[in-house]
Amino acid sequence: MSEAVSRLVSRGGTRWLVPLAWAVLLLAACVGMPWLEGLFRLVEPDSRSVVYARADFLTLLGRHLLVVAVAALAAVAIGVGAAVAVTRRAGRDFLPLVAQLASIGQTFPPVAVLALAVPVLGFGTLPIIVALLLYGLLPIVRNTLTGLEGVDSGVREAARGMGMTSGQLLRQVELPLAWPVILAGIRTSVTINIATAAIGATVGASNLGDPIISGIVNGNTAYVLQGALLIGLLALTVDSVFARLQPAAA
């Protein structure tokens, strides 16, 4: 066991100890919430129930992660793709339009997006995925544009001088050099959306927002604290994972 730990340390495995510690704390909070009943009783001494029990916290965590992951993948595909397209010669005229559309997506309140999406898409998970997608586009588009436009023109000329095609220049030179900046945008987008996804509970998307909304409706502060605690731990876990990835990508 000690040899395994030594090998882990020698290979730089300690880089992942912080995100691992947050992940363990998150899972422990999900599983051990009922054992904290005495603590939450101090907050809500008159409530009949002080630990949210309408759904298992691990199940809510899995649903929360799924919604954020689907929205993030869609935002990365659309945001990076659009930014790459408008930095090519043929699409450069659309650069201001794409930047403005991404800005509008984030300034539009997610609650308003939900209100508009529900009549079309119905209640459930899909409206909150649309809201998170729109809300998460701006950091990704903006950072991808910054990263690609920050590539030194001399490097591009040198790559072309080596006979690289436009596709090879993008894949082998521009995207690798811009990747740390792009990853920073993805990190910001995902971290924000982990907190924003909680409002999905208002339209029937079951996730870690359930105890928060239930607590607000029933006047139970203990429920609100449980949902907020788990969402906070999830955000810290994911953010620390991105923090460890960024130096490696730089």
Automatic annotation (TrEMBL):
It is a multi-pass membrane protein. Keywords: Membrane, Transmembrane, Transmembrane helix, Transport. The keyword Hydrolase does not apply. Residues 61-242 form the ABC transmembrane type-1 domain. The chain crosses the membrane at residues 20-43, 64-86, 111-138, 177-203, 223-245. It is found in: Cell membrane. Pfam families: BPD_transp_1. SUPFAM superfamilies: MetI-like (SSF161098). Belongs to the binding-protein-dependent transport system permease family. This is Osmoprotectant uptake system permease.
